[in-house]
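Progress narrative, work stream C.
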Amino acid sequence: MKTRDLNTALRIFREKGGTLRTRDLIKLGVHTDALYALRDSGRVTELGRGLYRLTEISEAEHPDLVEVAARAPNAAVCLISALSYHGITTQVPSSVHLAVPRGSYHRIKLSIPVTVYRFDPKTFEDGLETHRIGGMPLKVYGVARTVVDCFKFRNKIGLDVALEALRLARQRKRVQNRDLLRYARLLRVEKPMSPYLQAIE
C-alpha cells in the first residue's frame, strides 16, 4: 500500500538528499498522487521528466549535473565539464561531457545535451572521484586526470582548452607535475604533453 501522506513524502525526500526519481519514490512507498500534490503546491520542483527536487533545497551550483547524478550514475563527468566543475577553465560547455567504458552499452537519456566519450575500460576508474550533488553521488574525474584527458582528446576539444587547463591547474596549485606525468604515462600522452609541462615549470 503506497502512502498519499504529503508529510511522509516530504520526509522521504529529505532523508534521500532532496532529489528523487519518480520510480525511486514509488519503491520507497510513496503514491504518485502525493508526488503530484507536492509538485502542484510548489513544494517540489520537476527538474526533468520523472526527476524531482525539494524546493526548500537551494539551487545546486551545477544543476545539469544533478540530473546526471540521478539518471546516469555509471557515467563519469569528464573533459570540459570536469574542468568547469573544478573551476579550471573559462570555457562554457555547450553539452555535458560524460565518459563511459568502451565496449559496454550505455544508453544515456537526459533532458540536457550530452556528449559521450568512450574511455578505455582498463583506465576508466583511474583518477575518478565521487562528489555529492543534490544529495546524490556524482562521479567526476579529478583535476590531474582531467587535464591529461584534455591533451588526449585535444583533437576533439582543442589544444587551447588543454593548455588553459594545464596553466590554471598549475597556477592554483591544484596539481603537481608528478601527478600529471603519472596520468600522461598511463594514458600514453607523455610525449605530446612533456614540452608544455617543461615550459610551465
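Work stream C, second folded protein:
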Amino acid sequence: MMEPERLHATVIVCTYNRAQSLAETLQCLRNQQVMAGRTWEVIVVDNNSRDDTRAVVARFQAQWPILRYVFHPTQGLSHARNRGIAEARGEILLFTDDDVHPEPDWLEQVLSGMAQHGADACGGFIAPMFEIAPPAWFTPRFYGFVAVRTERTDDYPITDPSQAPFGANMAFCRWVFDRVGLFDTRRGRTGQVLASGEDGEMFERILAAGLKVVFLGRARVHHKVETFRLTRRYLLRWRYQTSRNIAESRDVPGTRRLLNVPLYLLPQTLRAVGRAVAGSVFATPDEAVHRQIIVAHFLGTLHGLLRRRRS
C-alpha cells in the first residue's frame, strides 16, 4: 500500500455537540491566508456528537476539498486528539478547538514561527471573546481557567511546564509524538466532565525529552468564553475535577499515608479552608474566589487519591 502524500500541515479540530460554534471555527480556518505552495488539510474529529456536526462539516466539504471528517466514538478529548494525529498527513500538526476563531494569518504564523525558531512544538496568543462583560471579581488571574493567554505578545522559549500552551492554540512536529507518545487518555475532558491537564502533561514530556518549545506571540486565536464559565461555580467545578483527575492518574508525593492520602495534605487542606472562610469576609472579591479555588484543588486531590486507592 502506498504511503499517503505528506503535507506541510494538518489542523485538527476535535468537537463534541457544538455544531453552530464549529461552523464559525471552520469559516475562520477557510479564511486562512497562507504562503503560495503551502499544502495543508483540516480534520474534524467528531467525538460522538448527537447534534448537526456531521451536516455542518458536509456543507463546508462541498466547497472546500481539504476538509476531512472523522467520527471517533470513544468519548474523551485525548482519545479524539490521538485519532486526529493518526489520521493526519501533515508534517506540522496544529490543534485548536470548536469554540475558537483563529486569525487569518494563524496557520502561516505558526509554520513560519516554528521554522524561524527551529521549534519542535509551540503555543500562541489566546484572546478572550466574552459573551457578557465578566463580573468584577473575574480578573486576569483567572484567565487560565478559561484557556485564555494574553500576558505576553512576543516570542519566547518555554522552558517550564508551568508555561505550557493551551490546547486552543498549540502545534507540534508530527515526529514529536513518536518520540514522547500520544496524549494521556486518562486525562482531558470527557463529555461533561471538565477534567483537564492533558496539554500540560504532554508538554512536560516534551520538555523532559530536551525538545524545543516556543511561544509565538503573533500566532493568535480568539477563544469564546461563554456566560456559564464566568461563574464561581464553574471555576470551582473545573478545579475540583481537574485536580481529582491528576491525582488519580499520576498520584502525589508522600510516603506516610492514611487511606492513600499523604498525611501532610490534611493540615494543608484545613488551612486552605480557614483562609477561604476568612477571605469571604476580609479579602478582595478576586482573592476570595481564588482561596475557594484552592480549597477545590485540595478536595479534588483527596478524592482522586481515594479513587486511585480503590482502583
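The CA atoms of residues 36 and 180 lie 32 Å apart. No further action is required on this item.
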